[in-house]
Amino acid sequence: MSKRTEPKSYSKALAAEKTVIYIVCIALCVLSIFPFAVMFVNATRDNYSIQQGMSLIPGDMLLTNWQTLNERQNFDILQGMWNSMFIATCSTVLALYFSTLAAYGLVVYRFKGRQLAFTFIMVVLMIPTQVSAVGFFTFMYKLNLVNTFIPLIIPAIASPSLVFFMRQYMIAGLPLEIVEAARIDGSSEFATYNTICLPLMKPALATQAIFCFVGSWNRLFEPTMLINSQDKYTMPMLVSLLKSDRFRTDYGTVYLALALTVLPLFIVYFALSKYIIAGVALGGVKE
Which CATH number fits domain 73-243: 3.30.70.20, 3.40.50.2300, 3.90.70.10, 1.10.3720.10? Predict the structure, then answer.
């Protein structure tokens, strides 16, 4: 009897464990989504109702908040969205391609000083941005690149954190035998990198694309230091303009501006999340 009841008890325990895991995952998911849901709902409410308390029922003040936001002098939402989108997209593409290329060189090629080069990249990774801010601004000023998007895009080519992540991913997920076979077949190094390496790195590239895009989109310190013209302001810079006395208490308008700032990040995440899930599933099948 004990042998027959043991599988049933084990299956019950396994089912209970799965139930607990599902409950915890759902709770964490709700906790993660809840602040964003409150933000989007408050964007449709007026200042008085927001001060009365939290609510998950949308209001009818969305158009009013939008009009109030557009009435703000020199507050061009569409221009700010375009500026942020242009900077974030260009810097993400450059960072992904060239940082992955640097990681590819560190993994595939065997040369003297390879470990030293990787150590130097890790040292640069530990240096805060604020330490080199004054020197970077002076350098851009001497090159007459202040008040342009170039200083916010080109430096993204050298991303130490991205090089480190892609190097670690390639060590585990890039078979060097495929690279050697491509060389034997006469493929050039850049052709091998573009047609073989990059497709194999899709899950890692998608993950890092999210981080790069979000980081570039949310940057405020460097754009504030380099951009002077209001027609070149990014969305975080425009949102920072809402600190005036009038808009400090107009919470509906502030929530609407924050919702517009966060919305593109959701779109990018949901567009790239399928590649991350596919990569995780592929890794599980391989093991």
Answer: 1.10.3720.10
